[in-house]
Amino acid sequence: MNIFKAMVPDKVVGSLKDLDLDDLKARGINSLLLDFDNTLGPDHATEPTDFSYEIVKNAREQGFDMCLVSNAKSGRSDGIARKLDIPCVTYAHKPRPDGVNRALALLGKDKSEAAMIGDQVFTDVIAGKYAGVYTVFTEKYEKKEIWYIVLKRPFEKLVRLIAGF
User: Fold this and answer.
1) pLDDT average, residue stretch 87-98
2) Eight-class DSSP state of 47
3) Most CB atoms closer than 10 Å: which of 63, 108, 117, 159?
4) Cα separation of 118 and 33, whole Å?
5) Do 24 and 108 contact (CB within 8 A), yes or no?
6) 65, 30 in Cβ contact below 8 A?
7) Under 8 Å CB-to-CB from 124, ≥6 apart: which residues?
8) pLDDT digit string (tens) for 131-151?
């Protein structure tokens, strides 16, 4: 797969609340690999939000297994995942597929059964594409972001403009 194709997600949603879980089920997907920062909650948060709990609860009620897949340090990510009662892969090294593959192994799932969901093209989408899972790009949870993510957003915007999403 060339790098440009790896930057184009399979699905784009405005928010995780807009994600059609029935559509994912129809595709044979039963596991959600979730980024946290600015996807499932605020960037660099140390606690899940009501939104985080709602998304996880809804997906669980629909029969989905979930795993947090985060590039963040283990203490913060593990703590959030424990509170959400889902497993976690820390130091995922996205955009490399390592963390996605570790999450699949942790859940005992095949790549055809999972979707990687996140707010960044250059980490979440590319990692999911190279791991061979379905990818969902979601608009960021909030505008506030750490400086090094802000620096990447204009390049991401260019990719999105060219690719049409």
Assistant:
1) 96
2) S
3) 117
4) 9
5) no
6) yes
7) 35, 39, 94, 116, 117, 118, 135, 137
8) 999 999 999 888 888 888 878
